[in-house]
Design goal:
The complex is a heterodimer. Chain A is an alpha+beta fold. Chain A folds into 2 domains: about 90 residues, Phosphorylase Kinase, domain 1 (2-Layer Sandwich); about 150 residues, Orthogonal Bundle (Transferase(Phosphotransferase), domain 1). Chain A contains 7 helices and 10 strands. A 5-stranded antiparallel sheet of chain A has the order 1-2-3-5-4, with helices on both faces. A 3-stranded antiparallel sheet of chain A has the order 6-8-9. Chain B is an alpha+beta fold. Chain B has a single domain, classed as CGI121/TPRKB (PF0523-like, 2-Layer Sandwich), CATH 3.30.2380.10. In chain B, strands 1, 2, 3, 4 and 5 form a 5-stranded antiparallel sheet that branches. In chain B, strand 1 and strand 2 form a beta hairpin. The longest helix of chain B has 16 residues. In chain B, about 40% of the residues are buried. The chains are: A alpha+beta, B alpha+beta. At the A-B interface, helix 1, helix 2 and strand 4 of A face helix 3 and helix 9 of B.
Chain lengths: ~240, ~190
């Protein structure tokens, strides 16, 4: 049987990493276009095929909708470049840059990174490349999460691996470094204070488990977050403090 | 001639940008009539207008068009076209709603079209010059380089159709690339909008 278009595309792409739910590739749609990132939700043979198709389709649709909602409101997320829900493929803009986890020298993720670009992480202070200090970076994190919560999108898996710093286009670039939120695979919509507080709590746990002495960093995140959330902040703070 | 070659399919798309166009009403009438003629004469007439005629002023970038073409090719390959042909599917993909009539009215050729992007999806064996001759037979207008699209895009109408009037103010380069990214993303995820 001939391969489907999406399968041929995957065949011609570069594997980046693999998780339990999906494989990630770097691909190019056409001769002239910029690279994209393909997230392929492969078939789960432990599920009934029709249930599997349904779940995959729903999740891709959910992820794409969350991304579009964020894009429309100016939250920094990757643009969508292709969707093939039948085959489980979501193609998004390739972000040239580095995950926060790596930038902050976080402990390595277990094993599943296929590490194609491992070499440039060896730098003494990788942040220097991007022209931001740790403190500024934390502010950007707080602002971006707040922008997302303002439009009632809950990320569902906020970790430093799911945030990227976009590499400035040139060294002399006067443009501010851009923090991009990625992987909306577990995202959902909610207006509840509780859900927003949980989103922050998950990030706090992620910080403390991957980055030593992270308390002051996370405190800076919250200050910037509070600033943007304004009158919505006290209620969220109360939920967060209740633990 | 602008060509779109994809890494995952033998389909190739060719596009010509016409500006100005002198016979938009006639082209539209011809497409409508071609659908009604029967027999070999009908087949011939349908072949003559077997293109996607796109209102160029609503296209924000090359990638915008490429994304619509790619999604139409994918839908066609899976037998999941929402319209009759891959060419009409491009128009459908471009419009943010699921209303086919509206998609054709907005993004297809109309009596008032001043600029047109004429696209043909074909396979890699097709001859570029043949396609070009056929496009020029139907459209009475001036072919301009694809890069001219940047001066043709009507950003206010793009914003209106994508309901971005409130979200986006300003007219600078940065604003345009912001709108372009949203518009491209909407086209890419058209198959899974609510």
């Amino acid at each position: 049987m001939a391969l489907s278009l999406s399968q041929s595309l995957i065949r011609a792409s570069l594997p980046i990493s693999q998780g339990a739910e999906a494989k990630v590739y770097k691909a190019q749609l056409s001769e002239t276009s910029l690279p994209i990132l393909l997230k392929y939700r492969f078939q789960k043979h432990y599920r009934h095929p029709s249930l599997d198709n349904n779940l995959t389709r729903t999740r891709i649709a959910g992820e794409a909708r969350a991304l579009l909602k964020c894009l429309r409101s100016g939250v920094n997320v990757p643009g969508i470049r292709m969707v093939d829900a039948a085959e489980g493929v979501l193609g998004i803009e390739w972000i040239e840059g580095q995950s926060l986890r790596k930038l902050l020298g976080g402990t390595e993720e277990e094993g599943d990174d296929l590490d194609v670009e491992a070499t440039d992480t060896e730098l003494e202070n990788p942040l220097k490349d991007y022209g931001v200090s740790v403190e500024e970076l934390m502010k950007l994190v707080g602002i971006e999460i707040a922008k997302m919560h303002k439009i009632d999108v809950i990320h569902g898996d906020l970790t430093t691996s799911n945030m990227m710093l976009r590499r400035p286009k040139s060294v002399e670039s006067t443009l501010a470094a851009e923090l991009v939120l990625i992987d909306f695979g577990l995202s959902y919509q909610s207006t509840l204070t509780e859900d927003k507080a949980v989103d922050l709590y998950v990030l706090e746990r992620a910080f403390s488990s991957t980055h030593p002495d992270s308390e002051p960093m996370f405190a800076t995140v919250l200050v910037a977050y509070a600033n943007v959330m304004d009158k919505d902040w006290p209620a969220i703070r109360n939920r967060l403090e209740d633990g | 001639m602008e060509s779109f070659r994809f890494s995952h399919t033998n389909n190739v798309a060719f596009a010509l940008l016409f500006y100005p166009v002198n016979n938009p009403g006639k082209i539209k009438q011809r497409i409508i009539d071609a659908a009604k003629v029967e027999g070999t004469e009908g087949d011939h007439e349908r072949d003559t207008v077997n293109f996607s005629f796109i209102e160029a002023s609503l296209i924000t970038s090359r990638l915008h068009l490429e994304t619509a073409i790619n999604q139409a090719i994918i839908a066609d390959s899976q037998g999941s076209l929402r319209t009759k042909t891959a060419h009409s599917e491009i128009l459908f993909a471009l419009n943010p709603t699921n209303n086919i009539t509206e998609a054709i009215r907005r993004y297809g050729v109309s009596d008032k079209s001043e600029s047109l992007l004429v696209v043909q999806i074909t396979d890699s064996s097709a001859s570029v010059s043949d396609v070009e001759i056929k496009m020029k037979e139907v459209v009475d207008g001036t072919v301009v380089p694809f890069g001219e699209l940047a001066t043709i895009t009507e950003w206010d109408r793009v914003k209106k159709y994508h309901k971005l009037d409130k979200e986006v103010r300003g007219k600078g380069e940065e604003t345009r690339s912001f709108i372009d990214n949203i518009v491209i993303s909407s086209v890419a995820m058209k198959s899974v909008i609510q």
